Amino acid sequence: MSGFELLDHISQMDSEVRPPVFVVTGKLLNDSERAKLEGKVARILPKNGISPRKLVASIGAFGDHADPEKNARNRDESPSILTTGTGSRP
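The structure assignment produced for this chain is given below.
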């Protein structure tokens, strides 16, 4: 299953249980790839040069803007991080 197929599956989930997805990629995305991601991911982050501290800060900043009621229900859940490509790791 490709990352795009996984994202399609996640995006079909009910919004009450759908986890936010952050795409961390070292690839320069073309217009077609960006269009496939639009509306399905919380944020696209560059893999190149992002420290673990910056990654956590980016995810934390997203949580500050999320729905407080949904956060209360899903407090123990983590966001999904989708990585693709050679040598990628979550």
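Interim note for the steering committee: The longest strand covers residues 21-25. Strands lie at 21-25, 43-46, 80-83.
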